[in-house]
């Protein structure tokens, strides 16, 4: 299985994936909001929709970036450098503006689970930040000279989804406690912001140093 990344690269990817999963965003807001306002089953349905969207993004990125690599390894490296700059920008934004988590805890008429799934899917598919992020994030862990870059991208994307499912499910099961603590504890929210910013900035610096050698 020569498409598997090296252990140090994979370990770094796991750290980044966990940090990203724990960072509040539109998906987490939907999961927790649906869980609190409707039911845990609704929260799981919205999560399933979002994870389906991530699978779609993974396949598109793998196809598109592998085509770019086949056309020009230099262009792929340029994309990685631009991606590193974007990740650094995300780190700065996280520290400047913080994470946004606005959970509506008002009880509402329950939506059919199919509609909840579709909402999770559409929020994920139509979020341009997710598209840009996947295009810039996954290439940081792929060697441009690797013969199976597309397989590596798909593997990493699937691992990312598996991590997201595991942590998101745990958050859904503890939605009331998490939402309450995030709203009442600015320190906890800032800790998450710093974790996210540190991981993203670390990758940006690591790539810049690697390119300078």
From TrEMBL:
<protein>
    <submittedName>
        <fullName>Threonine/homoserine/homoserine lactone efflux protein</fullName>
    </submittedName>
</protein>
<keyword id="KW-1003">Cell membrane</keyword>
<keyword id="KW-1133">Transmembrane helix</keyword>
<dbReference type="GO" id="GO:0015171">
    <property type="term" value="F:amino acid transmembrane transporter activity"/>
</dbReference>
<feature type="transmembrane region" description="Helical">
    <location>
        <begin position="191"/>
        <end position="210"/>
    </location>
</feature>
<feature type="transmembrane region" description="Helical">
    <location>
        <begin position="44"/>
        <end position="69"/>
    </location>
</feature>
<feature type="transmembrane region" description="Helical">
    <location>
        <begin position="150"/>
        <end position="179"/>
    </location>
</feature>
<keyword id="KW-0472">Membrane</keyword>
<feature type="transmembrane region" description="Helical">
    <location>
        <begin position="75"/>
        <end position="95"/>
    </location>
</feature>
<dbReference type="GO" id="GO:0005886">
    <property type="term" value="C:plasma membrane"/>
</dbReference>
<dbReference type="Pfam" id="PF01810">
    <property type="entry name" value="LysE"/>
</dbReference>
<feature type="transmembrane region" description="Helical">
    <location>
        <begin position="6"/>
        <end position="23"/>
    </location>
</feature>
<dbReference type="InterPro" id="IPR001123">
    <property type="entry name" value="LeuE-type"/>
</dbReference>
<keyword id="KW-0812">Transmembrane</keyword>
<feature type="transmembrane region" description="Helical">
    <location>
        <begin position="116"/>
        <end position="138"/>
    </location>
</feature>
């Amino acid at each position: 299985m020569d498409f598997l990344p090296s252990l140090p690269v994979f370990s770094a990817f796991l750290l980044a994936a966990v940090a990203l999963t724990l960072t509040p965003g539109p998906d987490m807001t939907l999961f927790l909001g649906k869980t609190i306002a409707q039911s845990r089953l609704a929260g799981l349905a919205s999560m399933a929709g979002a994870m389906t969207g991530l699978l779609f993004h993974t396949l598109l990125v793998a196809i598109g970036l592998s085509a770019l690599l086949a056309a020009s390894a230099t262009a792929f490296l340029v994309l990685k450098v631009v991606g590193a700059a974007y990740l650094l920008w995300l780190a700065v934004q996280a520290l400047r503006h913080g994470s946004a988590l606005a959970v509506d805890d008002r009880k509402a008429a329950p939506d059919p689970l199919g509609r909840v799934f579709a909402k999770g899917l559409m929020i994920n598919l139509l979020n341009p930040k997710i598209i840009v992020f996947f295009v810039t994030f996954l290439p940081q862990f792929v060697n441009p000279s690797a013969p199976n870059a597309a397989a590596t991208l798909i593997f990493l994307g699937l691992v990312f989804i598996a991590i997201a499912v595991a942590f998101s499910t745990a958050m859904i099961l503890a939605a009331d406690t998490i939402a309450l603590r995030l709203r009442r504890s600015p320190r906890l929210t800032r800790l998450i912001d710093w974790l996210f910013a540190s991981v993203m900035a670390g990758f940006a610096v690591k790539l810049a140093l690697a390119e300078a050698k």
